[in-house]
Design brief:
This protein is mainly α. The chain is 52% helix and 1% strand. The N terminus is likely disordered. Bound molecules: geranylgeranyl diphosphate (GRG). It catalyses: geranylgeranyl diphosphate + L-cysteinyl-[protein] = S-geranylgeranyl-L-cysteinyl-[protein] + diphosphate.
């Protein structure tokens, strides 16, 4: 039975009627009256979530920051991102779309650069002249989906590349060199689902392998026996969600581990005893969303933490307050706020990590 304080500080959902009834039994009619008042005042609480005692999202500045990262070629961020520019394109462009500003981008220029990273094998590299890898192949497919340009690729060729990376035990390698990781299982499943080709892999074996990476604490690691980590949990839960296998997850056990990631500042860490980081606002929150346990953390505190990580002068979001901003944390901060239903942002799909309207277009209009 939760204490009164829990019920006041956490978001109340429709099922809270059951709580109110059980409170009559446990705490008496007075407590139940208080809870009823709180429950029916939820719309007011939701409104105040975004207005009281916290800064605002500096949308225009973030848009300008993201567009400027693309233009600069000689600063530190551009140099360290050289090898993963395809991921950078996905982070920046998806953030722009969530902020409602994708139309500021020259689509033909992006698509032409993206296709110059495409290989005969069917995979994509992280930049022009770089080797293909499943990591960059998903980003390329996601960017094409954002622009509704999936018709520029030979879908069978990209599919064959991904199918060739499935191993006998159902796991996936990242490229021809063979590293295995549950990140690659998610990527293969997400990518093939977007391309409507999930039937080309052995889904049953893929799911079995992911489940073999599940730990006693309810989390998932990168390989069997690997430590539970929020990033890998997103991958495993996302893959299970896309394949319709979420019933195989112990949602209460996993939800408990995930909600324990919220620290005093309101931010989330990726595993016990680690520092909070804005990117876990995505990895943890999307997982909690998929297993329907978001109400187990304080949304208000997390929103404040993300907003505190903004550079309110020059735009961009960093890992923690007062650190240097980058496009990775800017995307995951905006994506986290989108999951938290921050006003003015497009909603994002927690499994596909793409705006909901893009996902709906892929599955409901073709
Ligand atoms: C489409 C969103 C999307 C993802 C594609 C690549 C991928 C699939 C998922 C990556 C999942 C992952 C492992 C995320 C974690 C990234 C991260 C910040 C790792 C840092 O790990 P440590 O050990 O940091 O350096 P901690 O926070 O544990 O100290």
């Amino acid at each position: 039975m939760p204490g009164i304080e829990d019920l006041i500080t956490k978001d109340l959902r429709p099922t809270s009627i059951e709580f109110i009834l059980s409170c009559v039994a446990f705490h008496g009619a007075g407590a139940a009256l208080l809870l009823s008042l709180l429950f029916f005042c939820q719309p007011l609480k939701r409104l105040s979530l975004f207005t009281c005692e916290m800064g605002e999202l500096v949308t225009e500045k973030h848009v300008r920051y993201i567009l400027s990262v693309e233009k600069r070629k000689d600063n530190f961020e551009s140099v360290v991102m050289e090898h993963l520019r395809m991921n950078g394109a996905y982070w920046g462009l998806t953030a722009l779309d969530l902020l409602g500003k994708l139309d500021t981008v020259d689509v033909d220029e992006v698509v032409s650069w993206l296709m110059s990273c495409h290989h005969d094998s069917g995979g994509f590299g992280g930049n022009v002249g770089h080797d293909p890898h499943i990591l960059y192949t998903l980003s390329a497919v996601q960017v094409l989906a954002l622009f509704d340009k999936l018709d520029v690729i030979d879908v069978d060729k990209v599919t064959n590349y991904i199918v060739s990376l499935q191993n006998e035990d159902g796991s996936f390698s990242g490229d021809m060199w063979g590293e295995v990781d549950t990140r690659f299982s998610y990527i293969a499943i997400c990518c093939l689902s977007i391309l409507h080709r999930l039937d080309k892999i052995n889904v049953e074996k893929a799911v079995k392998y992911i489940l073999s990476c599940k730990n006693m604490d309810g989390g998932f690691g990168c390989t069997p026996g690997g430590e539970s980590h929020a990033g890998q949990i997103f991958c495993c839960v996302g893959a299970l969600a896309i394949t319709g296998s979420l019933d195989l997850v112990d949602k209460d056990l996993l939800g408990w581990w995930l909600c324990e990631r919220q620290v005093k500042s309101g931010g989330l860490n990726g595993r016990p005893e680690k520092l909070p980081d804005v990117c876990y606002s995505w990895w943890v929150l999307s997982s909690l969303t998929m297993i329907d346990r978001v109400h187990w953390i304080s949304k208000e505190k997390l929103i404040k933490f993300i907003l505190d990580c903004q550079d309110t002068e020059n735009g961009g979001i960093s890992d923690r307050p007062d650190d240097a901003v980058d496009v990775f944390h800017t995307f995951f901060g905006v994506a986290g706020l989108s999951l938290l239903e921050y006003p003015g942002l497009k909603p994002i799909d927690p499994a596909y990590a793409l705006p909901v309207d893009v996902v709906n277009h892929i599955f409901f209009t073709k």
